[in-house]
Write a structure and sequence with these properties.
The complex is a heterotrimer of chains A (290), B (336) and C (262). In chain B, 71% of the residues lie in helices and 0% in strands. Chain B has 336 residues and is mainly alpha-helical. Chain B has two domains: 46 residues, no CATH class; 199 residues, MetI-like (MetI-like fold). The chains are: A alpha/beta (290), B mainly alpha (336), C mainly alpha (262).
C-alpha cells in the first residue's frame, strides 16, 4: 500500500483522512481487509490474471474510490468482497472473519439497475427486506423513508419501465440502502446515464451516504467522479489487475460535503490520477509545475 | 420483437433501452453520417411517423417521394386509407371480403354452379345449425369435444411444467432426459396414432394420450426455456439479497419465466385442440370431429360446415381467454 | 459469471454423451429383457431383434425408400405451394393497407379453425387422392408463413421508414434496400414453422385420405395387419425425418443469417 506525495499543495498523510461527519470519534480502523488477493480466469484456453496480489484495508466510514481502465479487475474485486464468487487466492476478512457468501451487511448498486420489472418501485425496494425481522408496518415505513431519501416517494406505485434511467438507478440505490448495510458497494453505478444526470446523482450519492454514515466502495472509470466523491482513491491497472497506487484526497469540502469540480487542487489531483492511469502525461506535468 | 438494425451496436441498443432520449441523438448522428440534410419540421428533425392504433393494425407506410412526386398507386392508397379512417370504414372493409364470399356462395347454390353435395346452400347450413342447437345435439357434441381437450390439456400441462421445471433445475436431469424428449417431439403427433390404436384401442384413452402429448411438448419447452433464460443479472440480485431457494423462485425466477411459459401454454392449447379434432375425425363415435366425418360420408356437407363453424368459435374463445390471462399476468410490461 | 458456473458448463463432452445415451440404453435393455422373459405379449411388443431384422430387410428391398420418397414428394409440393402463397400474402397484407383491411379479418377468422377440420371439405372438393392431399398440406403451410411474414413487415422499425423517407427512397428502393432484408429473418421463421406443419399435415393426409404410397400408408398397413414391428419402424422413420428437417432448418438459418449480428 503506497501513499504518494503529490507536491507541496497536497499533504502526504498516514491513515486518517480529514473529518467525515457522522462517524463517532475520528479514529477509524480497518474493518474490511484484503490480503494478497489473486484471481484468474481461463478464457479460451488462456489464463487471464484478473487480480494479482491485491492488498487493501478499508476503513470504517470512509468513501473509497477505485478507479482504473477496463480489465483492471475492479469489478471483480467488488464481486469477491460481496461474496458472489469464492474462487480466489488470498484472504478477504470482514471484522476478522473471512467472507464466505453474500450478506445483508454489504449492499450493492450495479451498473444496470437490475430492478425487477414485474414489481413496482415500492415492491422492488421492499423485496430487499424479505429476511428482515421488522414488522410489516416497520418495513413499509422504512421503504417509504428510503424512497424519500432518493426523492422518489411520489413514484412508489410506478413500474420500472415507466421511469427514466436516472430514476431507475435511484430506486436501485434505495434498494441497496434499505437494509442499512455497513457497506455500500457501487459498481460503476452511473455509467449508463447521461452526463447531466450523472453529475446530479453524484451529489445525491454523496449526500445520502454521508447521511447514512456508511462505508462506501465506488468502482468507476470516471476519474472526476472518483476524485469528487472519494476520501481515498485506489488506482488500479490491468494485465494483470493490480493496485498501482492509493491516494488520499485532501480537498476542501463545503458544509454539505460537496466539493468544487473547478478548484485548482481538484484539477491537479485529477490530472495526477489521470497521469497514473497513463492519460495526458504532458498535461499533468504542466499543471504540477504551476 | 424488432430485429437489431444494421447500423446500431448492442451497446447502443442497451443505452436506448435504458435511456430512450439518447436514441434520438443516435438516429440523428446516423442520418447525418448518411450525408443528407434532415427535413425540418415543427418540433423535431424528422416528421415522426404517426403510431397506428394497436399492433395488429400497424402497416408499413412507404413514403413515396421519388422523382415526379407521389405515384398513382400511392395516391389511391392514401385516398382509400383516408376514406377508411374518416368514415370508420375499417369495419366495412373488413366485412367486405366475407360478404363477397357469401354472395358468391349464395349465388352458386341459387344458380346451381356446384351440386348441393359439394356446396350446400347457406340457408341449409343455417337451418342445420338451428336444428342442432334446438335439439341440443350441437351442445352435446361440443361439450364432449371440449371435455376431452380440457382433460388432455390438464394432463399435458401438468406433465410439461413438471418435466420442464425439473430439466431447468438440474443440469444432470436435463442431460439424461432431454435426448429422449427430443426424439419423441420429432415425431408428428398423428404418427403415434397407429401405434396407440394397437395398444389402447380407440376409446377415450387414445384421445387423452394424444391430446396430452401434443400439449406436453410445447409446455415442456416453454417452461424449460423460460426458467433457463432468466437473466443472470436478476439471479444475482437474489443472491446479493440473500434469498433462499423458495424466495428466489417466487420473487425472481417464476415471474421472469412467465412469458415463455405462457407462450408454451398457448401453443399447447392450440396443438391440443388441433389434435383432438384430428383424432375425432379419425377414430371416434361422437364429438364435433365425428360430426364432420359423418357428414362427409353422407355427403351432407352442411353438417360439416356447421361443425367447422363451431370449431372455429371454440378456437377463438380459447385464444381470447388465454390472451387475456397473459395480459393480466404481465401488466407490468408497460410500453416504454 | 462465477467460476463455478463456468466449470460446470465446461463439463467434458464425454460425460454429456454418456448421460444422453443412458436412458435410451436402459430402455432398450428393458425391452430386450421383457421379451426374453416373456413379460409382454409379442403382438404388443415384438422382440428387439425382430424389429431390427425387419428394418434391415425393408430397407434392403427399397419399400421404405419408395414410401418415404412418395411422402416427401407430397410434402414438398404442398409446402412449396402453401409457403409461396402464404409469404406473398404476408407481404401484400403487410405493405398494402387496403389489403390488410379487407382480407385481414377474414384471415384471422380462418386461423381459428383447426387445420384438420378442413379435411372433410377438402376431401370432397379436391378428391381424396393426390390433389386433395397436396391441397391440405398447402393449407397447413400457408398459415404460418402468412402470419410470420405479415408480422415481420409490421415490425419493421419506424426508424427504417423515417430513414427511407429522409433519403427520398422510392417504394421500390425501400423494398430493395430496407424492407426485404429487414424481414428476411421473419420470413425464415415462417418457413421453418411451415415446414413442420406441412410434415404434420402430410402424415395426417396420408392417414385420413385414400391409401396411397407413402409412410402413412405403411403405417396403416402395419396397423391393419397387426404388425407392430412395422409400426414401430415407421415411427422411427418419422422421427428421423423430423429431426432431419429441424437440422436442415437450423443449418440454413445459421448460414443465411450469419452476416447479421444481433
Amino acid at each position: 500500500m503506497t501513499d504518494l506525495h503529490l507536491g507541496h499543495h497536497l499533504h502526504a498523510v498516514e491513515d486518517t483522512p480529514p473529518s467525515v461527519e457522522g462517524v463517532p470519534g475520528s479514529d477509524r480502523h480497518a474493518i474490511l481487509a484484503l490480503s494478497r488477493v489473486s484471481k484468474h480466469f481461463d478464457v479460451a484456453g488462456r489464463r487471464v490474471q484478473a487480480l494479482s496480489d491485491v492488498s487493501l484495508d478499508i476503513k470504517e466510514g470512509e468513501f473509497l474510490s477505485i478507479v482504473g481502465a477496463s480489465g483492471c479487475g475492479k469489478s471483480t474485486l467488488l464481486r469477491l468482497i460481496l461474496g458472489l464468487d469464492r474462487d480466489y487466492q488470498g484472504e478477504i476478512l470482514l471484522d476478522g472473519q473471512p467472507v464466505k457468501k453474500p450478506g445483508l451487511d454489504r449492499g450493492i448498486v450495479f451498473q444496470e439497475h437490475r430492478l425487477l420489472p414485474w414489481l413496482s418501485v415500492e415492491a422492488n425496494v421492499a423485496v430487499a427486506l424479505r429476511r428482515s425481522k421488522l414488522s410489516p408496518r416497520q418495513k413499509r415505513d422504512t421503504v417509504r423513508a428510503h424512497l424519500e431519501l432518493v426523492g422518489l416517494e411520489k413514484f412508489a406505485e410506478a413500474y420500472p419501465a415507466q421511469l427514466s434511467g436516472g430514476m431507475q438507478q435511484r430506486v436501485a440505490i434505495a434498494r441497496a440502502l434499505v437494509n442499512r448495510p455497513r457497506f455500500l458497494l457501487l459498481d460503476e453505478p452511473l455509467g449508463a446515464l447521461d452526463a447531466l444526470t450523472r453529475l446530479r446523482l453524484q451529489d445525491e450519492l454523496k449526500r445520502i451516504i454521508q447521511h447514512e454514515g456508511i462505508t462506501a466502495l465506488l468502482v468507476t472509470h470516471d476519474v472526476d467522479e472518483a476524485v469528487y466523491l472519494g476520501d481515498r482513491i485506489v488506482i488500479m491497472q490491468p494485465h494483470p489487475g493490480r493496485i498501482a497506487g492509493i491516494l488520499p484526497v485532501i480537498l476542501p469540502r463545503a458544509v454539505d460535503g460537496s466539493r468544487s469540480r473547478s478548484d485548482a487542487a481538484f484539477l491537479r489531483l485529477r490530472d495526477h490520477v489521470l497521469g497514473q492511469l497513463g492519460v495526458g502525461q504532458e498535461d499533468a506535468v504542466v499543471h504540477a509545475a504551476e | 420483437m424488432a430485429r437489431a438494425p444494421y447500423f446500431s451496436s448492442p451497446s447502443l441498443q442497451t443505452l436506448a433501452l435504458q435511456n430512450p432520449a439518447a436514441l434520438a441523438a443516435d438516429q440523428h448522428a446516423a442520418l447525418l453520417l448518411g450525408g443528407f440534410h434532415p427535413v425540418p419540421t415543427g418540433d423535431g428533425l424528422i416528421a415522426p411517423q404517426a403510431k397506428q392504433g394497436q399492433d395488429e393494425d400497424r402497416v408499413a407506410r412507404v413514403h413515396d417521394t421519388g422523382p415526379g412526386g407521389a405515384g398513382t398507386l400511392d395516391r389511391i392508397n392514401v385516398a382509400i386509407s383516408n376514406w377508411v379512417g374518416d368514415h370508420g370504414g375499417r369495419l366495412l372493409l373488413g366485412l367486405s371480403f366475407p360478404l363477397l364470399l357469401f354472395i358468391v356462395w349464395q349465388a352458386s347454390s341459387l344458380y346451381g354452379w356446384l351440386p348441393d353435395q359439394i356446396l350446400p346452400a347457406p340457408s341449409l347450413v343455417w337451418q342445420t345449425l338451428q336444428e342442432r342447437i334446438a335439439d341440443g345435439s350441437l351442445w352435446d357434441d361440443a361439450s364432449i369435444s371440449l371435455l376431452r381437450v380440457l382433460r388432455g390439456f390438464t394432463l399435458g400441462v401438468g406433465a410439461g411444467l413438471l418435466l420442464g421445471g425439473l430439466m431447468a433445475a438440474s443440469r444432470k436431469l436435463h442431460d439424461y432426459l432431454n435426448p429422449l424428449f427430443l426424439a419423441i417431439s420429432q415425431v408428428p403427433t398423428l404418427g403415434w396414432v397407429p401405434l396407440l390404436i394397437l395398444l389402447v384401442g380407440i376409446d377415450e384413452g387414445l384421445k387423452n394420450i394424444l391430446v396430452a402429448l401434443s400439449v406436453f411438448i410445447p409446455v415442456t419447452l416453454g417452461t424449460y426455456q423460460g426458467i433457463r433464460d432468466v437473466p443472470h443479472g436478476y439471479r444475482e440480485v437474489g443472491q446479493v439479497l440473500t434469498f433462499g431457494r423458495a424466495q428466489m423462485l417466487r420473487t425472481i425466477i417464476l415471474p421472469a419465466a412467465v412469458p415463455a411459459i405462457f407462450t408454451g401454454l398457448r401453443e399447447g392449447l392450440s396443438n391440443g385442440w388441433q389434435t383432438l379434432v384430428a383424432v375425432e375425425l379419425l377414430a371416434s363415435t361422437e364429438g364435433l370431429g365425428y360430426q364432420m366425418s359423418y357428414g362427409r360420408q353422407l355427403f351432407q356437407l352442411e353438417l360439416v360446415i356447421a361443425a367447422m363453424l363451431v370449431i372455429g368459435l371454440i378456437g377463438f374463445v380459447f385464444d381470447f381467454l388465454l390472451g387475456r390471462i397473459e395480459n393480466h399476468l404481465q401488466r407490468w410490461k408497460v410500453a416504454a | 459469471m462465477s467460476t463455478q458456473a463456468k466449470t460446470r458448463l465446461a463439463r467434458p463432452r464425454l460425460t454429456r454423451i454418456w448421460r444422453a445415451a443412458a436412458l435410451p440404453l436402459v430402455l432398450l435393455a428393458a425391452w430386450e429383457a421383457s421379451t426374453r422373459l416373456g413379460l409382454v405379449d409379442p403382438h404388443q411388443l415384438p422382440p428387439l431383434e425382430d424389429v431390427v431384422a425387419r428394418g434391415w430387410s425393408e430397407s434392403r428391398n427399397g419399400d421404405f425408400l419408395t414410401a418415404l420418397a412418395a411422402s416427401l414428394g407430397r410434402d414438398l409440393a404442398g409446402f412449396a405451394i402453401g409457403a409461396a402463397i402464404g409469404t406473398a400474402s404476408g407481404l401484400l397484407l403487410g405493405f398494402y393497407r387496403p389489403a390488410q383491411s379487407i382480407l385481414g379479418p377474414t384471415l384471422r377468422v380462418h386461423r381459428q379453425i383447426a387445420l384438420f377440420a378442413w379435411v372433410p371439405l377438402i376431401a370432397v372438393w379436391f378428391g381424396a387422392g393426390e390433389p386433395g392431399k397436396i391441397a391440405f398440406i398447402a393449407l397447413a403451410a400457408f398459415q404460418p408463413s402468412l402470419i410470420n411474414t405479415w408480422r415481420g413487415v409490421q415490425e419493421i422499425p419506424d426508424r427504417f421508414h423515417e430513414l427511407a423517407a429522409v433519403l427520398t427512397f422510392s417504394r421500390l428502393d425501400f423494398l430493395r434496400f430496407v424492407g426485404i432484408p429487414a424481414i428476411l429473418p421473419a420470413i425464415f421463421t415462417g418457413l421453418k414453422a411451415a415446414l413442420i406443419y406441412a410434415w404434420q399435415a402430410t402424415i395426417g393426409a396420408e392417414l385420413f385420405m385414400t391409401i396411397a404410397p407413402g409412410i402413412g400408408g405403411v403405417m396403416m398397413q402395419g396397423r391393419q395387419l397387426f404388425q407392430m414391428d412395422l409400426v414401430l419402424l415407421t415411427i422411427l422413420l418419422l422421427g428421423l425425418v423430423g429431426a432431419g428437417f429441424n437440422t436442415l432448418a437450423g443449418l440454413s438459418e445459421t448460414l443465411l443469417l450469419r452476416r447479421r449480428t444481433s
